[in-house]
Write a sequence for this structure.
């Protein structure tokens, strides 16, 4: 059986350590059983509250613990978010992800984020949020407002986690994922490579994700973007081949998940990215900016898609949801 969540770390290690071409070939074969080979899902990101985060994630420009020279920004107006979401939709994005530099949303923030979900959803976009830790009630309220995905990354292996973050523990992340799952939200969860972790940690991260009770629908694999002023600023650059191997084992062990090339794409060549698609990646963030760092940009991506013969995946669910909503309204008006 291909779709299983009882992978052992040893099995994943064996996959990871295969000759590179065997690994990528296997990943591409599995990819083609579950996805259209030349289709890439395109999401857009927007930071709705930037900087001054109380957490101490050693890679992050937004942590208040380091001096990264970032200009902090309070909650941005909902109207501004709607404008950005419309622009993203018009450029072909199907999912709009909103991120906030919070340890967790405060009760006073809930009406703000719930309104935002309703408005963005009404534009026919899939909605995604990443707001830090959630309790069960918050997860349910987000789901009821129309949230489709919640992003909450495990970031690295359980063993390496304390080297990267000290203001929370790995089990806090798993608890939030539990609340998100219980609320019926789709999970987007992945991690970062290039933090100075070992191969064993990259395998450990994918093992944790692939053995969750329900595999995440979407798995972002970020490549560290070194940020001036953070403790990881001078971390040795990870060999791109290791990033591709990580993508390939994610594809093989989570065959039905979207594997997303997230942070770090800006620093990669077209051929590096082509190899990542070959290894089973099938989702990207579009736009000039991620949350605080530059991204590849629409023009560059259009060129890349043209060169590789790739096309953006069309929205699947939302229009039918809207049609169902419209029908329900007609019925109740009768
Ligand atoms: N504050 C929320 C949280 O941490 O859950 C959401 C936003 S946070 C910026 C989302 C993810 O972005 C992190 O989990 C991490 O994987 C990734 N990320 C942040 N800074 C990064 C960097 N400099 N390079 C690569 N990935 C990064
Ligand atoms: C994820 O895994 N990557 C995105 C999204 N989830 C929220 C964020 C990447 C952030 C990169 C660093 C920055 O722009 O600040
Ligand atoms: Fe805060 Fe998220 Fe950055 Fe960690 S990754 S410092 S939680 S914004």
């Amino acid at each position: 059986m291909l779709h299983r969540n009882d992978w052992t770390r040893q099995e994943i290690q064996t996959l990871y350590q295969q000759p590179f071409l065997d690994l990528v070939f296997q990943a591409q074969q599995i990819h083609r059983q579950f996805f259209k080979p030349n289709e890439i899902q395109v999401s857009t990101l927007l930071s709705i509250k930037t900087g001054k985060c109380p957490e101490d994630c050693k890679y992050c420009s937004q942590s208040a613990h380091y001096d990264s020279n970032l200009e902090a920004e309070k909650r941005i107006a909902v109207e501004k978010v709607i404008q950005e979401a419309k622009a993203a939709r018009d450029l072909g994005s199907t999912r709009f992800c909103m991120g906030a530099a919070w340890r967790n949303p405060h009760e006073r923030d809930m009406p703000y984020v719930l309104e935002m979900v309703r408005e963005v959803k009404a534009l026919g976009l899939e909605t995604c949020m990443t707001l830090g830790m959630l309790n069960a009630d918050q997860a349910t309220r987000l789901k009821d407002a129309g949230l489709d995905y919640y992003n909450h990354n495990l970031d690295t292996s359980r063993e390496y986690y304390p080297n990267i973050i000290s203001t929370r523990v790995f089990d806090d992340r798993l608890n939030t994922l539990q609340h998100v799952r219980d609320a019926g939200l789709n999970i987007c969860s992945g991690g970062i490579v290039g933090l100075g972790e070992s191969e064993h940690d990259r395998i450990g991260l994918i093992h944790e994700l692939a053995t969750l009770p329900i595999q995440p629908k979407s798995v972002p694999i970020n490549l560290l973007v070194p940020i001036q002023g953070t403790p990881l600023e001078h971390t040795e650059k990870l060999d791109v081949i290791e990033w591709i191997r990580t993508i390939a084992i994610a594809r093989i062990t989570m065959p039905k998940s979207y594997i997303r090339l997230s942070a770090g794409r800006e620093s990669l060549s077209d051929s590096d990215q082509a190899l990542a698609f070959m290894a089973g990646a099938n989702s990207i963030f579009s736009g000039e900016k991620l949350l605080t760092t530059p991204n590849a940009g629409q023009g560059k991506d259009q060129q890349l898609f043209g060169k590789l013969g790739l096309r953006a995946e069309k929205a699947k669910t939302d229009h039918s949801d809207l049609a169902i909503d419209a029908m329900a309204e007609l019925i109740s008006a009768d």
